[in-house]
Amino acid sequence: MAISTRPRARQARESVVIRFAGDSGDGMQVTGSRFTVEAALAGNDLTTFPDFPAEIRAPAGTTYGVSAFQIHFGGVDVTTPGDAVDVLVAMNPAALKVDLKDLRVGGTVVVDTGAFTERNLTKAGFPGNPVEDGSLAQYQVLTVDITRLTVETVKTFGLSTREAHRCRNMWALGLMLWMYGRDRQVTTDWLRRKFADRPELAQANVAALNAGHAFGETAEMSEHLVGYTVGKAPAEPGRYRAVSGTEAIAWGLIAGMRGAGIEKMIFAGYPITPASLLLHTLATLKAHGVITFQAEDEIAAMGAVIGAAYAGALGVTSSSGPGMALKTEMLGLAIATELPLVVVDSQRAGPSTGMPTKAEQSDLFQAVHGRNADAPLAVLAAATASDCFDVAIEAVRIATKYMTPVILLSDAYLAHAAEPWRLPDPSKLPRFPVHFRTDPAGFHPFVRDPVTLARAWAVPGTPELEHRIGGLEKDYDTGHISYDPENHARMTRTRAAKIAGIANDIPPQRAALGNDHGAVAVVGWGSTYGAIHQAVREARDDGLDVSHIHLRYLNPFPANLGDLLKRFDRVLVPEMNCGQLVQLLRAAYLVPAEGLNKVEGKPFKVAELSAAIRASI
Amino acid sequence: MTVTTITDAELAPKDYASDQEVRWCPGCGDYAILKAVQKALAELGARRERTVFVSGIGCAARFPYYLSTYGFHTIHGRAPTIATGIKLANPELDVWVITGDGDGLSIGGNHMLHVLRRNVDLQILLFNNEIYGLTKGQYSPTSRRGTHSPSTPQGSIENPVSPCAFALGAGGRFVGRAVDTQQADLVALLERAHAHRGASFVEVFQNCVVFNDGVFDSFTTKDAAPHAQLHVEHGKPLVFGPQGERGLRLKPGTLALEVVPVGKGGVPLEEILVHDETNRTLAQLLVGLEPPEFPMALGVLYCAPATSYEADVYAQARAAGFGGKRELADLGTLLTRDGTWTVE
A245: which of A352, B112, B206, B255 is 20 to 30 A away, CA to CA? Predict the structure, then answer.
């Protein structure tokens, strides 16, 4: 290993992709999240991609127990977690084995040699030691015995061997923060708060963080240990913070509740990956008007929310594919009784249990059509972490204005992904006050607003509005049980017309990038936004006539969508499923839309989309 | 001279009836239960606008349509979940759950377990007719072994669940039992159930005239009732029979009950067990008694109040700062916590 002279100037980089990878017990998610906060506070634009196994603690050292956190940050507009990794931090051989394939040729791999024991190498399936046998020749390899250096650093704090080892991630974080010239005060403060009950753990972790940083600053360095600068990203003036999709949904729901003038939100959920995070987040927000309820199962969570909506609260539940399936019958009841509530679906790879921690967009059919009988409801999808905030508000608006359940589609990637977010002015957020019915004159439970077709929201506790509702068909004119054939047809068509009418109350669809006509429209929905946007931008920079259209409203579609699509020669629909939106578009508009499908549990890479766009022209 | 100020017009049982025509089979036990509930509501002075009846699916589940209160006819087995949501949204509402043996103990068994365990402040009335009526007579989870039905032509080979034993096992803190046609007892039990804060579980033996007629005759006919019914009362000895001539005591040397003659030629009254409705062990013994060897125990078998679920939920929420309507502008404090930066 060559020894260089110091000090060396930092080199400038436009943007960088780092992946922290280690055992699921190595704290890689925490490490990545802390780096994210420091990068965001330094003014970088960024996108993150946590990628972890479903096992909480898989056997140590195995490839299936590898947990990784990728962050793409830069001084430019960053829309994806990055196709290829610039710096891979491999805390053990299994992490190297799993994640090396994504490191670009010439990229840097930081290896904790202390973890590259014979036993760990064998477990990871390496015949020899890749650090020594030349198999990493096409990369820049930085070997550091992070384990030993960490243990030495923290030995004064009297920790157990296990606890000392668990400070390794902070050492690695310190080194990476040094490498990109990022501050560590906020992380230091965070460690002190996190380990307030165990001051020795706080001190040890802070010491490890500082030691990793000092190593970069002062140690005799290999030629591969270079500091970089990554500038601030151009951004609209304003106040910013880092936000994950889950946080943004939680806050958006609260903003929606206030916009609707509703006093409380009843959030009921049943633990399921990756949706539980929303339950955890809202459980800490009681001071903001939220009551959370962990139900005995998915059905009960949905039932509690229906009961809450019936009694005049904002009802919200959240789940993922298999849990959504369990809620299906209840959703039918909510449609029949026309009650306002929001269901957040964090989609994951399926069918059945599938791959619980991996993202997919394969619940679209389930959301739009997955119920018995003609049972329409509104379906929205969030595109980015910060978009989750606005979409959650919109979900509450539509639910309460149209007295309907609304499904908000997120996914395993959006739930965890973080990005900078320009804070809105709370006083300028949408207001759409609900009107609880109090007037008994002419009341029956299915008396409707002539414009929206929404029935009146008359809640128990209101004198003289006592009424009975339920899953049985009701008479259009009286609200009583009715088996009359013509009445059923009328009610079925009215429920459909109510949902279809939402199309007149949402913004017309526009291209997110490019013209509203041309050679190719790339039509996406949900978390593929960033990758599609970047691929279309690159294609347009190369002079190709391509536009990016991204749908927030999946049922109903915006009123002008069919006309818009027909102004393009070709319509390409990338989705993380086997072709669901593409079928809906073809069915609705008879357009020859073509699918581009990926079902690997991972987001699209920009390169994959670029290749498809270029092939379609 | 006494001056009475009437603030609310007193309502009669008929004022709790809706304008809908009742459509159970003629002679169905549900009519009697409906009548008893309307009477109980009148005696309790229940405010119609604050009262909600929630039901699942089945014959019993039509109940809310026949009352002039708020009502929600939900889906099969799930009424406890919707009732829980209603109480979470508005704990001030008086919420009753109407269910049956299939609805509450088969498809909805899980919810029944958890609503009782949580002790949500509800009155849960389980109409037990030991059969699926609305689907035309299949055996139910409370049907006795050997029950012949369209789905068990050779007789059921399943062991039935005892609703009250289930409720006690689930941690229910109020468990009572009554017979549909014994109006005075049923009304009194409903009033006790209503007074109890928390989940009150009431099993009503309900005769299905079409598919399971007479299944409770061994203890409900005029002739059998005095001999085969034990009406328990807190603090009173557990005696039954037309003259109170028989009683229950602990069988010496065991933890089991036995029926003994009381008084002359029998066991002195002092040796007879005294009902203690707060004693769970005694309640467990009582719910297990079955004719013909034992009487059927009726009344308040167990009542040991504790804080109700929704009360605890709101106590915790208020401790965490919940309360009062908040403005949109307040959102700022939420969004700006844990670190922001400014771009000029």
Answer: A352
Q: CA A520 to CA A611: how far, in whole Å?
A: 13
Report CA Rg, chain A.
26
Q: Which two tokens stand for residue A22?
A: 């280690």
**E strand segments, A320-381:** 341-347, 378-381
- Tell me the H-state helices in B199-287: 217-220, 225-228, 280-287
For residue B336, which residues of chain A lie inside 8 Å, CB to CB?
239, 241, 423
Whether the bond between A351 and the residue before it is cis, its omega within 30 degrees of 0, is yes
Q: Is A330 on the interface with B (CB under 8 A)?
A: yes
A527 burial class (0-12, 13-18, 19+ CB within 10 angstroms)?
buried
pLDDT 10s digits, A309-351: 999 999 999 999 999 999 999 999 999 999 999 999 999 999 9
Question: Residues B149, B151, B156, B158: is their CA dihedral positive or negative?
Answer: negative
Rg, C-alpha atoms of chain B: 23
pLDDT per residue over A198-222, tens digit each? 999 999 999 999 999 999 988 765 6
Each residue of A408-428: b (16+ CB within 10 Å) or e? bbbbbbbbbbbbbbebbebee
Interface of A with B in 464-503 (CB under 8 A): 464-472, 480-481
Tell me the residue type at A448: R
| Whole-complex ipTM | 0.96
List all residues of chain A from 169 to 198 with a beta carbon under 8 Å from chain B. Answer: 186
Distance of alpha carbon A29 from alpha carbon B337, whole angstroms? 21
Give CA–CA dist A96/A22, Å, rounded.
8
State the CB neighbour count (10 A cutoff) for residue A482.
Answer: 18
Beta bridge partners of A108: A87, A140
Cα three-residue angle B105-B110-B112, rounded to 5 degrees: 60
> What residues in A contact B316, CB-CB < 8 Å?
286
Token pair of B20, please? 């809908």
What is the distance between the alpha carbons of residues A253 and A396, in angstroms, rounded to a whole number? 7
A587 to A590, B95, B242: CA distances (angstroms): 6, 46, 76
**Are A264 and B341 a contacting pair at CB < 8 A?**
no
pLDDT for A51: 85
The model's confidence at residue B8, banded by pLDDT at 50, 70 and 90, is: low
Residue reference for tokens 């990055």? A82
Work out the number of other CB atoms within 10 angstroms of the CB of residue A313: 27
Q: A1 in contact with B at a CB cutoff of 8 Å?
A: no
- Closest C-alpha to B226, from B250, B207, B246: B246
Q: A96 φ, ψ to 5°?
A: -65, -45
Task: Measure the CA–CA gap between A334 and B314, rounded to whole angstroms.
Answer: 26
Residues making up chain A, counted from first to last: 617
Of A522, A518, A510, the closest CA to residue A571 belongs to A522
Cα–Cα distance for residue pair B96/B123, rounded to 1 Å: 5
Q: Which long-range contacts (CB under 8 A, 24 or more apart) does A543-546 make?
A: A544/A519, A544/A520, A544/A613, A544/A614, A544/A617, A545/A514, A545/A515, A545/A518, A545/A519, A545/A520, A545/A617, A546/A514, A546/A518, A546/A519, A546/A520, A546/A521, A546/A522, A546/A613, A546/A617
Cβ burial A223-235 (10 Å sphere, 16+ → b, else e): ebbbbeebeebee
- pTM value is 0.94
